[in-house]
UniProtKB/TrEMBL annotation:
GO molecular-function terms, A-Z: catalytic activity
Biological processes annotated in GO: carbohydrate metabolic process
Protein name per UniProt: Alpha-amylase
Coiled-coil regions, chain positions: none
Key words, A-Z: Carbohydrate metabolism
Domain Glycoside hydrolase family 57 N-terminal: residue ranges: 1-124
Origin: domain of life: Archaea
Family membership: Belongs to the glycosyl hydrolase 57 family.
Amino acid sequence: LTEGVDCVLGWRSPNYVYKAWGSDIRVLLRNYRLSDDIGFRFSDKKWDQYPLTAEKYAQWLSQTSGDVILVAIDYETFGEHHSINTGIHEFLRWLPLEIAKYNIATEFPSTAAFKYPIRDVYNVPPWNTISWADERDLSAWLGNEIQKTIFEFYTFLEPYAKAVGNDHLRVWRMLGSSDHLYYLSMKGGAAGEVHTYFSPYKNLFTALRVYTEALTALASAISSKIAENPYKYAYNIVLPSLYSFQFYLTPGRPLSLKARSLPELITLLEKVPVESIIYHLRRGDLANWLRTFFMLDEITTRLEELSQNVDSIKDYEKLREMVISILRGSKVS
């Protein structure tokens, strides 16, 4: 089940069964117009179709072409978005009776998806993720620089939260709720009104302060936990590709070798040209990477001491073994 987005559908209708690109997974698309008529516009007295009765809505459904109509709305539609005095409960009570007059069948999505033939492919590439909010994209959560920056902070904590686990990981996941980013929207107009309606904060600045303080407190707690035994946790940290260690042979000559974790670094050091090891020792790259992302101060100190004597070591394979030995010394069984 996903959103029937105009920019993806083009001239096509959402009221058919589609399949996902590159697979046989059947896809049902939400008809956002008919869904939002109930979910958002039902109690809007400025709406040109107000009031919306069950009879009128059933008639709209009967006049809608296609094989299947997916109407998807929030549970809070009935009581929160629209209070009981708007007539929303009466609308819901009478709707099945009105629908039956037009011989419209109501079915489980799993039934409807296989009852009708696949009409076409619904292709949503990774760089064009869709939603049912605002402009049907990710702009509700990542539409401004504040949202993007705080999300980068949140994702940066991921490998460390996973390495430590337990309550730290649980809190990290809770702070990943999309609502926290949703509250940081700076949109105006109708979309902005919806953001403001759902936010428990008086303004964006309060929302930002609370979320930033929570993430900072979590980062401090994770850092303190790792500091208790950095060697233990270092072996569990797997960095995203953005922060991986890139091996070079000489300036401007990168190798096709990258390490995202301490075990991966050790494995690559066993086969990388020794000239690359010497290059990085002289520059202090290994020590800086391990200190910055793994907090291995003792290990980095030993590497820095070795780098000062690198030119006096003529047996290059012995040098390789010394570097690997230093790194393996951080492992706690």
